[in-house]
Structures are given as C-alpha cells and as structure tokens.
Design brief:
Blueprint: H1 8-30, E1 38-42, H2 44-57, E2 67-71, E3 76-81, E4 84-97, H3 104-129, E5 133-134, E6 144-148, E7 167-180
Parallel strand pairs: 1-2
Antiparallel strand pairs: 2-4, 3-4, 4-7, 5-7, 6-7
Length: 184
C-alpha cells in the first residue's frame, strides 16, 4: 500500500486561505486597501524577486502585504512513525508594511496588535483544526516566535530592508508539524 504524496506548501497555503476568510473583513475595517493575505513560498531570492515584481507591475489586484511566507527549503523527517510524516524545522514569516519613522511602540499598535498577532494566532488555530496535522505538544505545535519590529533578518546590518520594504514581522521558527499520511 502506498501513501499519497504530501505537499507541505499546499497544506500551509490552504490554512492561510482559511485565515484570510476568517480575518479579511476585520482587516478591511482597519485598512480598506487590504484585499487579502499574500501567501508566498520559496527561498528568499525568489520571494524577494516576486515582491519586487509586484511593485514594478503596480497591479492593484494583488497586494504584497500582509504577507505569509513559507521559507524553503523544507526538511522532512521520514520513517519515524508509521502513518505519520514529520516536517521540521519549518520557518514562516508573517509581515506587514510599516512606516520607517515609526518607533517600536507605534509599530506594535499599528501592525503587531491589529494585523500580525491576529494572523499568527489564527494560523495556529487553523493548524489545530486541520485534521491532517497532529499537534506536537500538549499546548499545540512546538515553535519559537520572534517579533521583528523593522524586520531585517537574523543578523541584520544597520538599515537593511530584507524584503526591499520597511516591514514589521513575526517569525515562526523551528515549527514542528506532523502530518497524517493517507493511503491511495
């Protein structure tokens, strides 16, 4: 008996779509220019290029932020539990454009409290509701959360804009997901 392939970017994307369904109306009350959550997956260079291209085309049907980015590559643990597929450490960036002149308390009021934390919390909630995903801890899914006012990456040099924009971000790092395998 063979198992169906597991496509992690698709599973994360489906959960992000449910987050969008749940939060979009509330976000649009706060900021009417938001038309959705931009889900991207890939290595830094590719996602950075996609965001730059979005700026160049000035396509109003697609907005760069808020952004949920599944950072690739993925490390998949095989053969540890029968019927379970493990993926770790997953890294997800949740970002929203910010004003370069804003100080950290203002960034928390404008971005973290109103947009980034709700996306983060709802994404974890959707993971817990997804029947394909198994909790890796009694409290949910093991991970490290990092708040990045004016995100510049892990070891930013001064004034570096990692995504070519001034963004605030929540980084979900070392996320452990276990996925139930389904048979063909």
């Amino acid at each position: 008996m063979t198992n169906k392939p597991v496509y992690i970017p698709d599973i994360i994307g489906e959960n992000v779509a449910r987050v969008q369904t749940k939060l979009l109306a509330a976000f649009q009350v706060l900021d009417p220019t938001i038309i959705g959550i931009n889900y991207q997956y890939g290595p830094y260079k590719e996602v950075f290029g996609n965001l730059v291209q979005m700026t160049k085309t000035n396509d109003t049907s697609v907005k760069k932020y808020p952004l949920v980015w599944l950072v690739l590559p993925l490390f998949e643990r095989m053969g540890t539990d029968i019927g379970v597929y493990g993926v770790e450490p997953i890294r997800i960036i949740i970002a929203r454009w910010g004003n370069a002149r804003d100080k950290t308390p203002t960034r928390y009021e404008k971005n973290f409290k109103k947009f980034l934390y709700p996306i983060y919390m709802e994404l974890l909630n959707q993971f817990s509701l997804d029947k394909r995903l198994l909790k890796t801890d009694s409290n949910g899914f093991k991970h490290t959360k990092i708040d990045w006012p004016y995100w510049g990456g892990d070891n930013p040099t001064p004034d570096v804009n990692v995504l070519s924009d001034y963004v605030d971000a929540i980084e979900i790092k070392d996320l452990e997901l276990k996925i139930k395998l389904s048979n063909c």
